[in-house]
Design goal:
Strand order of the largest sheet: 2-3-1-4
Order of helices and strands: EHEEHEH
CATH class: Alpha Beta
Number of helices: 3
Radius of gyration: 13 Å
Distance between the termini: 25 Å
Structural class: alpha+beta
CATH topology: Alpha-Beta Plaits
Strand content: 25-35%
Length: 86
């Protein structure tokens, strides 16, 4: 699996977050998606063979601008890892 981190412009509230997350889920079979209007980020966990451009195009089709795209190997953050990072 891999993680896709997107910098997205145009999200202003929780409804925007839900709108973006729904668009991603409808466009691709992703493992998880989390959108944050406060940070302007969308984090998506997906299979390695899934084309990330499908996710980007789905977000842009809803009227949001994807400013930056970063792909990296997915590393599950368990409880102890999250506590260590605080």
């Amino acid at each position: 699996m891999k993680e896709l981190v997107l910098k997205v412009d145009g999200m202003m509230c929780g409804a925007c977050e839900a709108h973006v997350a729904d668009a991603v889920r409808k466009a691709a079979n992703v493992k998880s998606v989390k959108a944050s209007h406060t940070s302007g980020k969308v984090d998506v966990v997906l299979d390695d063979d899934l084309d990330t451009d499908v996710v980007v195009k789905a977000i842009e089709a809803e009227g949001y601008a994807v400013l930056q795209k970063e792909e990296r190997p997915y590393q599950k953050q368990g409880l102890f890892a999250r506590l260590k990072n605080k």
